[in-house]
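#struct-queue
[09:14] JT: dropping the first one here, sequence first, then the structure tokens:
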Amino acid sequence: MSSVKSASSFRLERQPLDLTFRRATLAARTWETSTYVRVRLEGDDLRGFTSLGSDDHMRLFFPAGDTDDLEVMRQSPSREYTPLAWDADAGWLEVEFAVHGDDGVAAPWAATAPLGSVIGVGGPRGSMVIAGRPDSWFLAGDETAVPAIRRFAALMDEDATGRVLIEVTDAAHELAVAAPTGVTVAFAHRGDALPGTALAAALDDLSEGERPAGDVFGFVAAEQGVVKAGRRLLLERWGAASDQVVVKGYWKAGEAEYHAPH
């Protein structure tokens, strides 16, 4: 018997992007739940915006008032978010925010800033793209990962198989993901527990026998504490290839300035 490993059905590739800083304004907001909001940003600077990877990060800058000075904007408080949807010709960009309490700068802005408020958009500076077709998919995260999960799901063809697992507070806060019929979408409810704990427990409960078939693309992103459980599942129990999975903390409890690894 040959010991040569057959070629994988897909690979992850890094692609650089030109780092561009753009000025935009808040044009609309849509609440999906009481703690999750989608905003639309508009502006001529957004013409030509691109994001090649579902897990891309861009940096949003929140100035104290209206300004056309890009240097002033660059000095403003900022946070990283995933682009959800955009039209590079029309000049608009949509971003989703998990809103819990009134701490920080980004979520309160998304929830309460008057329409017309100015925002700076930096990046993305590079993308991780999937070349080829995974045999199956496993996507897991909390609310902060839903934009990336939605973008990954949009890449799936109608014959895709796999599983999506999302941690939210309760049934009233579940967020829809449009996935093919062969991909199950389930939710872990944390209730009053610490963020990430319900997802970590759900990941630990998955057995070797529940591994999706073939070359699986694995993506796990939530509060930093979920990283160990994600790696235990994907790399240890399921034996997925380390270069075919992404496991990262999108945020860290108590650290507003935490940056997700790219």
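[09:21] JT: and here's the second one, same format:
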Amino acid sequence: MSFHWPLDPAELFGERYPQMVNTGVPAADVDAVRAAITDMWPDAPGGWVHEWSRLAARYAEEGRHDLAVLAYGWAKFPTLADDAKRAALANQLTQYRLAAPGFGVDFDRQVLEVPYRDTTTAVPVHVLAPAGLPADAPVLLASGGVDTWKMDLHAMFVAAAVRLGVRVLAFDIAGTGESAIPMTSDGGAQVVRGLIGHARTLGNGVVAHLGISMGGHYSARSGLAGEVDAAVVLGGPVEAAFTGTGLSHFGMDGIVGNALGFDQRPARDELSARLATFSLRPLLDQDLNAPMLIVNGADDVHVPQHDTLVFQGRRDTDVHLIPGTGHCAVTKLPEVIPMMFDWFEHTLETIAARAHS
């Protein structure tokens, strides 16, 4: 199920331009696509998916499969609301596989069957590991959010694998990307628990979880519940964001509405009722959490400061609200990513030391 909704591409470029260039698309090419796009939905000249796909096809013809992955990633952005977007995702996957020999790490694509409700659901995952990684290395479960998915965040996940000496298991959260199910509070969490269980069989049994944006909701959930050994939450909504006040910017109501499985733009009360079920207040009221790092930008228009600051004072929890940047501190990632990796490194070393003491 999916739907279109009024969305101004100029507004999206205004918000996402730093992300586009910081993740590797040459600024001159972003500027050219920005100038060419006049509408969000038509698969025709001037349309978002058409113009980004043209750029991606050019990169592919030039053998720059890495850049084609990024461009097709923006072509399918922000959600798979029609066949053209779904085709862009399929093309992104094709280019990703072609780019794999240049990843600099071992790459394995698997499709796992994990428990979901009374049956199972297929979850495609990408496993990234430094060459020669010992079999008993920890595993890092990693995902993006509702509009930025596992292939879009490839560079960050490779950097984590190399820097931390871990096996990264990258996936798309429920309702997004290659997921076959809608995003629900219980179903999405159930899928993550299934992935955690699988991840524990891949290395030494230690599993950490990195979640970005809505993916951070799920890493907050797994960390608070003590289901993983360590969790980092970057820009994750946990409580106040689900009051319905945070979805009025940059088309986020339509993006989230698609992820939730609506087949037409939901009324505000419908959306609010569904989102209310995602509040992590019951887990926040408990004291079970694994070591956690909570990070976000102080100027986030999607996730209120409360959803970061609510973690202050918890045991084994570090909290950083970064000034001068917005959602997921995207304009300050060059300082935030090393912070996250340093924290993971220290925490994993502590876990290993305890295991051998």
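[09:30] RK: nice, looked through the second one.
[09:31] RK: The mean pLDDT is 95.
[09:31] JT: good to know. The chain has two domains: 9-99, 105-356.
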